[in-house]
What we know:
The structure is a homodimer. Chain A is α/β, with parallel strands linked by helices. Chain A contains six helices and twelve strands. In chain A, the strands form two sheets. A nine-stranded mixed β-sheet of chain A has the order 3-4-2-1-5-6-7-11-8, sandwiched between helices. At the A-B interface, helix 2, helix 3, helix 4, helix 5 and strand 8 of A face helix 2, helix 3, helix 4, helix 5 and strand 8 of B.
Amino acid sequence: MSKPLILVINDDGIHAPGLRALIKAVRQLGDLVIVAPDKPMSGMSHAVTLNTPLRVHKLKEEEGYAEYSCNGTPADCAKLGHKAIIGRKPDLLVSGINHGSNASVNVVYSGTMAAVIEGAMENVPSIGFSLNDYSINADFSKCEPYILSIARKVLENGLPDYTCLNVNIPAVNGSPIKGIKIVRQALAYWEESFEHRKDPHERDYFWLSGTFRNRDNGEDTDEWALRNNYVSVVPLHFDLTSHKTIPLLRDWETGNLN
Amino acid sequence: MSKPLILVINDDGIHAPGLRALIKAVRQLGDLVIVAPDKPMSGMSHAVTLNTPLRVHKLKEEEGYAEYSCNGTPADCAKLGHKAIIGRKPDLLVSGINHGSNASVNVVYSGTMAAVIEGAMENVPSIGFSLNDYSINADFSKCEPYILSIARKVLENGLPDYTCLNVNIPAVNGSPIKGIKIVRQALAYWEESFEHRKDPHERDYFWLSGTFRNRDNGEDTDEWALRNNYVSVVPLHFDLTSHKTIPLLRDWETGNLN
Protein backbone atom coordinates (compact mmCIF):
# COMPACT_ATOMS: atom_id res chain seq x y z
CA MET A 1 0.00 0.00 0.00
CA SER A 2 1.38 3.42 -0.90
CA LYS A 3 1.92 6.00 1.79
CA PRO A 4 -0.68 8.71 2.32
CA LEU A 5 0.10 12.00 0.56
CA ILE A 6 -0.20 14.90 3.01
CA LEU A 7 -0.44 18.57 2.01
CA VAL A 8 0.96 20.87 4.72
CA ILE A 9 0.06 24.59 4.91
CA ASN A 10 0.35 27.34 7.53
CA ASP A 11 -0.20 31.06 7.92
CA ASP A 12 2.83 32.05 10.00
CA GLY A 13 5.07 31.50 6.95
CA ILE A 14 7.60 28.98 5.67
CA HIS A 15 10.15 29.72 8.42
CA ALA A 16 7.77 29.43 11.40
CA PRO A 17 8.77 27.00 14.18
CA GLY A 18 5.17 25.77 14.37
CA LEU A 19 5.34 24.60 10.75
CA ARG A 20 8.60 22.73 11.45
CA ALA A 21 7.00 20.96 14.43
CA LEU A 22 3.98 19.97 12.32
CA ILE A 23 6.24 18.64 9.53
CA LYS A 24 8.26 16.61 12.07
CA ALA A 25 5.04 15.06 13.42
CA VAL A 26 3.25 14.18 10.18
CA ARG A 27 6.44 13.00 8.41
CA GLN A 28 5.81 9.80 10.39
CA LEU A 29 2.47 9.30 8.65
CA GLY A 30 3.17 9.75 4.94
CA ASP A 31 4.75 11.62 2.07
CA LEU A 32 4.64 15.39 2.40
CA VAL A 33 4.16 18.39 0.13
CA ILE A 34 4.59 21.67 2.01
CA VAL A 35 3.21 24.89 0.48
CA ALA A 36 3.57 27.80 2.88
CA PRO A 37 3.42 31.60 2.53
CA ASP A 38 6.82 33.27 2.02
CA LYS A 39 5.96 35.75 4.82
CA PRO A 40 3.67 35.77 7.87
CA MET A 41 -0.02 35.85 6.89
CA SER A 42 -1.79 35.90 10.25
CA GLY A 43 -5.23 37.49 10.24
CA MET A 44 -5.63 37.01 6.48
CA SER A 45 -8.75 34.90 6.97
CA HIS A 46 -10.00 33.37 3.70
CA ALA A 47 -8.52 36.09 1.45
CA VAL A 48 -7.55 34.96 -2.05
CA THR A 49 -5.21 36.65 -4.51
CA LEU A 50 -7.12 37.70 -7.62
CA ASN A 51 -5.16 40.71 -8.90
CA THR A 52 -1.55 39.63 -8.49
CA PRO A 53 0.26 36.68 -10.10
CA LEU A 54 1.18 33.89 -7.72
CA ARG A 55 4.83 32.85 -7.54
CA VAL A 56 5.99 29.51 -6.20
CA HIS A 57 9.56 28.59 -5.23
CA LYS A 58 10.70 25.02 -4.72
CA LEU A 59 12.96 25.06 -1.67
CA LYS A 60 13.65 21.35 -1.15
CA GLU A 61 12.87 18.02 -2.77
CA GLU A 62 13.81 14.53 -1.68
CA GLU A 63 12.16 11.10 -1.64
CA GLY A 64 8.64 11.55 -0.27
CA TYR A 65 9.16 15.21 0.59
CA ALA A 66 8.86 18.52 -1.27
CA GLU A 67 8.76 22.03 0.12
CA TYR A 68 7.52 25.21 -1.62
CA SER A 69 7.03 28.82 -0.61
CA CYS A 70 4.41 31.00 -2.23
CA ASN A 71 3.69 34.76 -2.26
CA GLY A 72 -0.04 34.15 -1.75
CA THR A 73 -2.35 33.73 1.22
CA PRO A 74 -2.92 30.45 3.10
CA ALA A 75 -6.10 29.84 1.05
CA ASP A 76 -4.05 30.39 -2.14
CA CYS A 77 -1.44 27.91 -0.84
CA ALA A 78 -4.13 25.27 -0.27
CA LYS A 79 -5.60 25.79 -3.75
CA LEU A 80 -2.20 25.89 -5.47
CA GLY A 81 -0.83 22.93 -3.55
CA HIS A 82 -3.81 20.78 -4.44
CA LYS A 83 -4.49 21.91 -8.01
CA ALA A 84 -1.18 23.15 -9.46
CA ILE A 85 1.56 21.35 -7.51
CA ILE A 86 0.19 17.93 -6.50
CA GLY A 87 -2.45 17.80 -9.24
CA ARG A 88 -4.55 15.22 -7.39
CA LYS A 89 -6.57 15.14 -4.18
CA PRO A 90 -4.20 14.72 -1.21
CA ASP A 91 -5.15 12.08 1.38
CA LEU A 92 -4.90 14.64 4.16
CA LEU A 93 -4.40 18.39 4.51
CA VAL A 94 -2.91 19.74 7.74
CA SER A 95 -2.32 23.40 8.60
CA GLY A 96 -0.35 25.01 11.41
CA ILE A 97 0.86 24.69 14.05
CA ASN A 98 -0.50 28.20 14.48
CA HIS A 99 1.35 30.37 16.98
CA GLY A 100 -1.68 31.39 19.05
CA SER A 101 -5.33 30.47 19.49
CA ASN A 102 -7.77 29.73 16.70
CA ALA A 103 -10.48 28.70 19.14
CA SER A 104 -13.96 30.25 19.21
CA VAL A 105 -14.34 33.37 17.07
CA ASN A 106 -10.65 33.46 16.14
CA VAL A 107 -11.46 30.86 13.49
CA VAL A 108 -13.15 33.61 11.44
CA TYR A 109 -9.92 35.66 11.16
CA SER A 110 -7.52 32.74 10.81
CA GLY A 111 -5.46 32.06 7.71
CA THR A 112 -4.47 28.68 9.16
CA MET A 113 -8.11 27.63 9.37
CA ALA A 114 -9.00 29.15 5.96
CA ALA A 115 -6.58 26.65 4.36
CA VAL A 116 -8.35 23.88 6.28
CA ILE A 117 -11.81 25.05 5.17
CA GLU A 118 -10.48 25.14 1.58
CA GLY A 119 -9.67 21.48 2.05
CA ALA A 120 -13.19 20.76 3.33
CA MET A 121 -14.68 22.51 0.28
CA GLU A 122 -12.77 20.05 -1.91
CA ASN A 123 -13.71 17.16 0.39
CA VAL A 124 -10.07 16.60 1.37
CA PRO A 125 -9.88 15.42 5.02
CA SER A 126 -8.40 18.52 6.66
CA ILE A 127 -7.20 19.49 10.13
CA GLY A 128 -5.88 22.76 11.57
CA PHE A 129 -3.63 22.78 14.63
CA SER A 130 -2.97 25.76 16.90
CA LEU A 131 -0.97 26.14 20.10
CA ASN A 132 -2.54 28.69 22.45
CA ASP A 133 0.80 30.05 23.52
CA TYR A 134 1.89 33.51 22.32
CA SER A 135 5.36 33.30 23.87
CA ILE A 136 8.28 33.62 21.44
CA ASN A 137 9.70 30.42 22.94
CA ALA A 138 6.43 28.47 22.72
CA ASP A 139 7.15 24.74 22.95
CA PHE A 140 5.45 23.15 19.93
CA SER A 141 6.92 19.69 20.61
CA LYS A 142 4.28 18.75 23.19
CA CYS A 143 1.65 18.98 20.42
CA GLU A 144 3.07 15.96 18.60
CA PRO A 145 1.23 13.09 20.34
CA TYR A 146 -2.10 14.92 19.87
CA ILE A 147 -1.38 15.69 16.22
CA LEU A 148 -0.54 12.03 15.63
CA SER A 149 -3.59 10.72 17.49
CA ILE A 150 -6.02 12.96 15.58
CA ALA A 151 -4.34 12.72 12.17
CA ARG A 152 -4.22 8.90 12.40
CA LYS A 153 -7.95 8.78 13.22
CA VAL A 154 -8.73 11.02 10.25
CA LEU A 155 -6.54 8.95 7.90
CA GLU A 156 -8.24 5.74 9.10
CA ASN A 157 -11.86 6.93 9.28
CA GLY A 158 -12.06 10.02 7.07
CA LEU A 159 -14.40 12.85 8.06
CA PRO A 160 -18.04 13.50 7.13
CA ASP A 161 -18.44 15.24 3.76
CA TYR A 162 -17.49 18.95 3.71
CA THR A 163 -16.36 18.84 7.33
CA CYS A 164 -12.94 19.63 8.82
CA LEU A 165 -11.38 19.89 12.28
CA ASN A 166 -10.18 22.86 14.31
CA VAL A 167 -7.73 21.56 16.94
CA ASN A 168 -6.41 23.87 19.66
CA ILE A 169 -3.77 22.80 22.14
CA PRO A 170 -3.68 24.55 25.52
CA ALA A 171 -0.71 26.50 26.81
CA VAL A 172 0.12 24.56 29.92
CA ASN A 173 3.22 25.22 31.93
CA GLY A 174 4.08 22.42 34.25
CA SER A 175 0.59 20.93 34.59
CA PRO A 176 -0.15 18.14 32.12
CA ILE A 177 -2.58 18.27 29.19
CA LYS A 178 -5.57 16.23 30.38
CA GLY A 179 -6.58 14.79 26.99
CA ILE A 180 -8.81 15.52 23.99
CA LYS A 181 -12.39 16.89 24.10
CA ILE A 182 -14.81 17.07 21.13
CA VAL A 183 -16.56 20.42 21.56
CA ARG A 184 -18.36 23.31 19.85
CA GLN A 185 -17.09 26.81 19.01
CA ALA A 186 -17.65 29.15 21.97
CA LEU A 187 -19.54 32.40 21.40
CA ALA A 188 -16.90 35.06 21.98
CA TYR A 189 -15.72 38.31 20.44
CA TRP A 190 -12.84 40.75 20.30
CA GLU A 191 -13.47 44.04 22.02
CA GLU A 192 -11.53 46.34 19.71
CA SER A 193 -9.75 49.45 20.71
CA PHE A 194 -8.00 51.71 18.26
CA GLU A 195 -4.88 53.50 19.39
CA HIS A 196 -4.95 56.91 17.80
CA ARG A 197 -1.45 58.33 17.17
CA LYS A 198 0.26 61.09 15.17
CA ASP A 199 3.12 60.27 12.79
CA PRO A 200 6.26 62.54 12.59
CA HIS A 201 4.42 64.59 9.94
CA GLU A 202 1.49 65.22 12.33
CA ARG A 203 -0.82 62.95 10.35
CA ASP A 204 -3.26 60.70 12.22
CA TYR A 205 -3.09 56.96 12.19
CA PHE A 206 -4.66 54.08 14.12
CA TRP A 207 -3.42 50.75 15.41
CA LEU A 208 -6.02 48.02 15.66
CA SER A 209 -5.84 46.28 19.01
CA GLY A 210 -8.30 44.37 21.11
CA THR A 211 -9.15 42.18 24.06
CA PHE A 212 -10.69 38.72 23.73
CA ARG A 213 -14.06 38.39 25.50
CA ASN A 214 -15.82 35.08 26.00
CA ARG A 215 -19.63 35.33 26.28
CA ASP A 216 -20.12 31.58 26.64
CA ASN A 217 -19.47 29.47 29.75
CA GLY A 218 -20.75 26.23 28.22
CA GLU A 219 -18.75 23.18 29.34
CA ASP A 220 -19.22 21.82 25.81
CA THR A 221 -17.14 24.64 24.26
CA ASP A 222 -13.56 24.92 23.01
CA GLU A 223 -12.87 27.78 25.43
CA TRP A 224 -13.95 25.65 28.40
CA ALA A 225 -11.83 22.70 27.23
CA LEU A 226 -8.73 24.87 26.78
CA ARG A 227 -9.18 26.64 30.13
CA ASN A 228 -9.31 23.20 31.73
CA ASN A 229 -6.12 21.95 30.01
CA TYR A 230 -7.83 19.82 27.36
CA VAL A 231 -7.02 19.80 23.65
CA SER A 232 -10.21 21.08 21.92
CA VAL A 233 -11.42 19.53 18.67
CA VAL A 234 -14.26 21.39 16.92
CA PRO A 235 -15.72 19.87 13.73
CA LEU A 236 -16.39 22.72 11.29
CA HIS A 237 -18.39 23.19 8.13
CA PHE A 238 -18.76 26.23 5.87
CA ASP A 239 -22.54 26.57 5.90
CA LEU A 240 -23.01 29.92 7.63
CA THR A 241 -26.82 29.73 7.45
CA SER A 242 -28.58 30.36 10.74
CA HIS A 243 -31.17 27.66 10.02
CA LYS A 244 -33.25 28.41 13.09
CA THR A 245 -33.74 32.01 11.89
CA ILE A 246 -35.27 31.04 8.52
CA PRO A 247 -38.83 30.38 9.83
CA LEU A 248 -38.71 33.61 11.90
CA LEU A 249 -38.26 35.67 8.72
CA ARG A 250 -40.72 33.80 6.51
CA ASP A 251 -43.24 36.66 6.53
CA TRP A 252 -40.58 39.01 5.12
CA GLU A 253 -41.06 37.33 1.75
CA THR A 254 -42.72 39.56 -0.86
CA GLY A 255 -43.60 39.59 -4.52
CA ASN A 256 -42.13 41.98 -7.10
CA LEU A 257 -41.44 45.50 -5.77
CA ASN A 258 -40.08 47.22 -8.89
CA MET B 1 -37.47 60.54 17.73
CA SER B 2 -33.96 60.83 16.32
CA LYS B 3 -33.15 59.30 12.97
CA PRO B 4 -31.45 55.89 12.85
CA LEU B 5 -27.66 56.05 12.47
CA ILE B 6 -26.53 53.79 9.63
CA LEU B 7 -22.92 52.65 9.05
CA VAL B 8 -22.23 51.94 5.36
CA ILE B 9 -19.29 49.76 4.23
CA ASN B 10 -18.32 47.99 1.01
CA ASP B 11 -15.43 46.01 -0.48
CA ASP B 12 -15.32 47.39 -4.02
CA GLY B 13 -13.92 50.67 -2.68
CA ILE B 14 -15.08 54.23 -2.04
CA HIS B 15 -15.61 55.02 -5.74
CA ALA B 16 -17.70 51.96 -6.62
CA PRO B 17 -21.09 52.60 -8.28
CA GLY B 18 -22.64 49.91 -6.06
CA LEU B 19 -21.72 51.91 -2.95
CA ARG B 20 -23.28 55.05 -4.45
CA ALA B 21 -26.53 53.17 -5.17
CA LEU B 22 -26.61 51.81 -1.59
CA ILE B 23 -26.01 55.30 -0.15
CA LYS B 24 -28.81 56.74 -2.32
CA ALA B 25 -31.20 54.06 -1.04
CA VAL B 26 -30.44 54.12 2.69
CA ARG B 27 -30.16 57.95 2.82
CA GLN B 28 -33.98 57.80 2.92
CA LEU B 29 -33.87 55.84 6.19
CA GLY B 30 -31.49 57.72 8.44
CA ASP B 31 -28.21 59.53 9.06
CA LEU B 32 -25.22 57.92 7.37
CA VAL B 33 -21.56 57.33 8.15
CA ILE B 34 -19.72 55.77 5.21
CA VAL B 35 -16.36 54.05 5.80
CA ALA B 36 -15.10 52.36 2.66
CA PRO B 37 -11.73 51.00 1.50
CA ASP B 38 -9.65 53.44 -0.54
CA LYS B 39 -9.13 50.73 -3.20
CA PRO B 40 -10.97 47.58 -4.31
CA MET B 41 -10.83 44.84 -1.68
CA SER B 42 -12.75 42.00 -3.31
CA GLY B 43 -11.80 38.53 -2.14
CA MET B 44 -10.29 39.85 1.10
CA SER B 45 -12.69 37.79 3.20
CA HIS B 46 -12.43 38.57 6.92
CA ALA B 47 -8.78 39.72 6.77
CA VAL B 48 -7.79 42.33 9.36
CA THR B 49 -4.80 44.66 9.34
CA LEU B 50 -2.52 43.91 12.27
CA ASN B 51 0.94 44.97 11.02
CA THR B 52 0.23 48.26 9.25
CA PRO B 53 -1.20 51.49 10.69
CA LEU B 54 -4.69 52.34 9.52
CA ARG B 55 -5.22 55.74 7.88
CA VAL B 56 -8.62 57.37 7.57
CA HIS B 57 -9.49 60.34 5.33
CA LYS B 58 -12.65 62.38 5.77
CA LEU B 59 -13.95 63.08 2.28
CA LYS B 60 -17.27 64.80 2.99
CA GLU B 61 -19.32 65.97 5.95
CA GLU B 62 -22.72 67.59 6.02
CA GLU B 63 -25.83 67.43 8.23
CA GLY B 64 -26.59 63.75 8.83
CA TYR B 65 -23.89 62.52 6.46
CA ALA B 66 -20.15 61.80 6.70
CA GLU B 67 -17.92 59.91 4.32
CA TYR B 68 -14.49 58.41 5.01
CA SER B 69 -12.01 56.29 3.07
CA CYS B 70 -9.62 53.93 4.82
CA ASN B 71 -6.52 51.98 3.74
CA GLY B 72 -7.75 48.84 5.53
CA THR B 73 -9.94 45.88 4.66
CA PRO B 74 -13.76 45.85 4.82
CA ALA B 75 -13.56 44.18 8.28
CA ASP B 76 -11.19 46.98 9.40
CA CYS B 77 -13.67 49.57 8.04
CA ALA B 78 -16.50 48.02 10.05
CA LYS B 79 -14.42 47.97 13.24
CA LEU B 80 -13.03 51.48 12.73
CA GLY B 81 -16.38 52.93 11.73
CA HIS B 82 -18.08 51.56 14.81
CA LYS B 83 -15.34 52.00 17.42
CA ALA B 84 -13.14 54.91 16.29
CA ILE B 85 -15.37 57.09 14.09
CA ILE B 86 -18.94 56.77 15.41
CA GLY B 87 -17.93 55.68 18.90
CA ARG B 88 -21.32 54.11 19.63
CA LYS B 89 -23.31 51.18 18.28
CA PRO B 90 -24.94 52.15 14.97
CA ASP B 91 -28.63 51.26 14.57
CA LEU B 92 -27.89 49.46 11.31
CA LEU B 93 -24.85 48.38 9.30
CA VAL B 94 -25.22 47.88 5.55
CA SER B 95 -22.53 46.71 3.14
CA GLY B 96 -22.38 46.69 -0.66
CA ILE B 97 -23.89 46.78 -3.14
CA ASN B 98 -21.31 44.20 -4.15
CA HIS B 99 -20.56 43.98 -7.85
CA GLY B 100 -21.14 40.24 -8.24
CA SER B 101 -22.57 37.31 -6.31
CA ASN B 102 -22.03 36.63 -2.62
CA ALA B 103 -24.48 33.74 -2.65
CA SER B 104 -23.63 30.20 -1.49
CA VAL B 105 -19.91 29.61 -0.91
CA ASN B 106 -18.92 33.09 -2.16
CA VAL B 107 -19.82 34.38 1.29
CA VAL B 108 -16.64 32.77 2.62
CA TYR B 109 -14.38 34.87 0.34
CA SER B 110 -16.39 38.08 0.50
CA GLY B 111 -15.10 41.29 2.04
CA THR B 112 -18.60 42.78 1.76
CA MET B 113 -20.02 39.99 3.91
CA ALA B 114 -17.07 40.04 6.37
CA ALA B 115 -18.05 43.62 7.28
CA VAL B 116 -21.61 42.37 7.86
CA ILE B 117 -20.44 39.46 10.04
CA GLU B 118 -18.33 41.97 12.03
CA GLY B 119 -21.58 43.79 12.69
CA ALA B 120 -23.25 40.57 13.85
CA MET B 121 -20.35 39.89 16.24
CA GLU B 122 -21.07 43.25 17.88
CA ASN B 123 -24.83 42.61 17.76
CA VAL B 124 -25.37 45.48 15.34
CA PRO B 125 -28.27 44.62 12.95
CA SER B 126 -26.33 44.12 9.71
CA ILE B 127 -27.19 43.42 6.08
CA GLY B 128 -25.02 42.77 3.02
CA PHE B 129 -26.35 43.46 -0.49
CA SER B 130 -24.93 42.03 -3.72
CA LEU B 131 -26.04 42.31 -7.33
CA ASN B 132 -25.30 39.15 -9.29
CA ASP B 133 -24.31 41.05 -12.38
CA TYR B 134 -20.65 41.19 -13.41
CA SER B 135 -21.21 43.59 -16.32
CA ILE B 136 -19.32 46.89 -16.13
CA ASN B 137 -22.64 48.65 -16.74
CA ALA B 138 -24.56 46.69 -14.11
CA ASP B 139 -27.75 48.56 -13.18
CA PHE B 140 -27.73 48.88 -9.38
CA SER B 141 -30.84 51.13 -9.30
CA LYS B 142 -33.29 48.22 -9.49
CA CYS B 143 -31.95 47.00 -6.11
CA GLU B 144 -33.39 50.01 -4.28
CA PRO B 145 -36.94 48.80 -3.49
CA TYR B 146 -35.54 45.52 -2.13
CA ILE B 147 -32.89 47.30 -0.06
CA LEU B 148 -35.57 49.57 1.40
CA SER B 149 -38.01 46.71 2.11
CA ILE B 150 -35.42 44.61 3.93
CA ALA B 151 -33.62 47.46 5.74
CA ARG B 152 -36.97 48.85 7.01
CA LYS B 153 -37.93 45.43 8.38
CA VAL B 154 -34.57 45.13 10.15
CA LEU B 155 -34.84 48.65 11.60
CA GLU B 156 -38.39 47.90 12.86
CA ASN B 157 -37.89 44.34 14.13
CA GLY B 158 -34.16 43.93 14.68
CA LEU B 159 -32.55 40.54 14.04
CA PRO B 160 -31.93 37.61 16.38
CA ASP B 161 -28.75 37.97 18.46
CA TYR B 162 -25.48 37.44 16.54
CA THR B 163 -27.34 37.01 13.24
CA CYS B 164 -27.06 39.04 10.02
CA LEU B 165 -28.47 38.90 6.49
CA ASN B 166 -26.87 38.03 3.15
CA VAL B 167 -29.05 39.53 0.40
CA ASN B 168 -28.37 38.72 -3.26
CA ILE B 169 -30.26 40.36 -6.10
CA PRO B 170 -30.54 38.46 -9.37
CA ALA B 171 -29.20 39.75 -12.69
CA VAL B 172 -32.37 39.94 -14.69
CA ASN B 173 -32.51 41.53 -18.09
CA GLY B 174 -35.98 42.36 -19.18
CA SER B 175 -37.83 39.82 -17.04
CA PRO B 176 -38.98 41.19 -13.67
CA ILE B 177 -37.63 40.22 -10.23
CA LYS B 178 -40.32 37.95 -8.77
CA GLY B 179 -39.88 38.96 -5.12
CA ILE B 180 -37.96 38.00 -1.96
CA LYS B 181 -37.28 34.44 -0.71
CA ILE B 182 -35.86 33.51 2.72
CA VAL B 183 -33.46 30.65 1.98
CA ARG B 184 -30.34 28.76 3.06
CA GLN B 185 -26.78 28.91 1.66
CA ALA B 186 -26.43 26.41 -1.21
CA LEU B 187 -23.60 23.85 -1.08
CA ALA B 188 -21.36 24.91 -3.95
CA TYR B 189 -17.68 25.33 -4.68
CA TRP B 190 -15.20 26.95 -7.04
CA GLU B 191 -13.39 24.55 -9.32
CA GLU B 192 -10.03 26.25 -9.49
CA SER B 193 -7.71 26.25 -12.41
CA PHE B 194 -4.32 27.87 -12.36
CA GLU B 195 -3.03 29.41 -15.54
CA HIS B 196 0.68 28.75 -15.65
CA ARG B 197 2.62 31.43 -17.55
CA LYS B 198 6.19 32.66 -18.02
CA ASP B 199 7.08 36.30 -17.40
CA PRO B 200 9.49 38.19 -19.77
CA HIS B 201 12.40 36.94 -17.61
CA GLU B 202 11.31 33.30 -18.13
CA ARG B 203 10.14 32.96 -14.54
CA ASP B 204 6.99 30.98 -13.82
CA TYR B 205 3.86 32.51 -12.39
CA PHE B 206 0.24 31.47 -11.90
CA TRP B 207 -3.10 33.22 -12.23
CA LEU B 208 -5.83 31.92 -9.97
CA SER B 209 -9.02 31.38 -11.89
CA GLY B 210 -12.03 29.17 -11.44
CA THR B 211 -15.52 28.07 -12.38
CA PHE B 212 -18.45 28.15 -9.96
CA ARG B 213 -20.05 24.72 -9.42
CA ASN B 214 -23.31 24.22 -7.55
CA ARG B 215 -23.69 20.81 -5.88
CA ASP B 216 -27.10 21.61 -4.42
CA ASN B 217 -30.43 21.69 -6.26
CA GLY B 218 -32.53 22.36 -3.15
CA GLU B 219 -35.44 24.73 -3.85
CA ASP B 220 -34.81 26.22 -0.39
CA THR B 221 -31.36 27.57 -1.43
CA ASP B 222 -30.07 30.98 -2.47
CA GLU B 223 -28.83 29.57 -5.78
CA TRP B 224 -32.31 28.25 -6.62
CA ALA B 225 -33.95 31.56 -5.69
CA LEU B 226 -31.51 33.59 -7.82
CA ARG B 227 -31.82 31.24 -10.81
CA ASN B 228 -35.58 31.75 -10.58
CA ASN B 229 -35.35 35.58 -10.46
CA TYR B 230 -35.97 35.94 -6.73
CA VAL B 231 -33.96 38.10 -4.33
CA SER B 232 -32.34 35.63 -1.87
CA VAL B 233 -32.10 36.45 1.83
CA VAL B 234 -29.95 34.07 3.90
CA PRO B 235 -29.73 34.66 7.66
CA LEU B 236 -26.13 34.02 8.73
CA HIS B 237 -24.33 33.42 11.99
CA PHE B 238 -20.62 32.88 12.68
CA ASP B 239 -20.79 29.57 14.51
CA LEU B 240 -18.91 27.27 12.11
CA THR B 241 -19.42 24.21 14.33
CA SER B 242 -20.82 21.18 12.50
CA HIS B 243 -23.02 20.28 15.47
CA LYS B 244 -24.24 17.01 13.95
CA THR B 245 -20.62 15.77 13.68
CA ILE B 246 -19.86 16.17 17.41
CA PRO B 247 -21.53 12.89 18.56
CA LEU B 248 -19.86 11.01 15.66
CA LEU B 249 -16.40 11.89 17.00
CA ARG B 250 -17.14 11.38 20.70
CA ASP B 251 -15.01 8.21 20.87
CA TRP B 252 -11.97 10.15 19.62
CA GLU B 253 -11.70 11.69 23.07
CA THR B 254 -8.65 10.52 25.04
CA GLY B 255 -6.80 11.20 28.24
CA ASN B 256 -3.26 12.59 28.49
CA LEU B 257 -0.89 11.38 25.73
CA ASN B 258 2.35 13.17 26.68
